[in-house]
Design goal:
It contains 8 helices and no strands. The protein is mainly α and 197 residues long.
């Protein structure tokens, strides 16, 4: 048990380094994508996605789960998702409704977490539908960036498959937001003592 506490308080670990790398890659991706260097943008996004998949696996496999990592990982995820969506929305105005939905979902979840913490209740852990929504988001925007880089898609060339993926992603995001809000209401109704355990 003391070892687990010691691990939780550590700062310098490989997974934490990967999360920091993902944060540093965000402006790199934005610069490449907005300046038209699409192959470099795709490469940056792939590196970000691979490190996102690996950091959790490494943390669990080598007992490197830390309190800092629990904050860095979701922050890196949300920052990456938000900036990638913003960059694509700048180039493709038709996906702006998805960006608005993404922002509203994240603001709702953040607000709910703040309310629960103020009431000394613990927000729920990530659920499968939240993870599926995140994976679908990454797949959709990666597909658009890749198609854009290959010249198959651009501001003057629309791709139906990409927008179907975006539509499905939007539906999954909305579903995840509703489900998380239902959990938030259930936790909020719990007795104070139960929430503090």
């Amino acid at each position: 048990m003391p070892q687990n506490k010691a691990n939780a308080s550590r700062i310098i670990t490989v997974p934490n380094g990967m999360s920091v790398l993902r944060i540093l890659l965000v402006p790199v991706f934005a610069a490449f994508y907005l300046n038209g260097n699409l192959p470099a943008a795709v490469t940056t996004l792939v590196i970000s996605g691979v490190t996102d998949m690996l950091d959790g696996l490494i943390a669990r496999r080598f007992n490197q789960i830390t309190d800092l990592g629990k904050m860095l990982d979701p922050f890196a995820d949300k920052l990456t998702q938000g900036v990638v969506a913003l960059c694509i929305a700048i180039r493709f105005p038709s996906i702006r409704p998805l960006l608005v939905l993404f922002i509203l979902k994240e603001l709702l979840m953040l607000s709910c977490a703040v309310v629960l913490l103020k009431k000394h209740k613990r927000p729920c852990a990530a659920k499968w539908y939240g993870k599926v929504a995140t994976v679908m988001f990454y797949m959709s925007v990666s597909a658009i960036v890749l198609l854009d880089g290959l010249g198959i898609m651009g501001p003057d060339k629309q791709n139906i498959a990409a927008f179907v993926m975006l539509g499905l992603t939007g539906i999954m995001m909305a579903y995840a937001a509703v489900k998380y809000f239902q959990i938030f209401l259930a936790i909020l109704r719990e007795p104070e003592e139960k929430g503090e355990k």
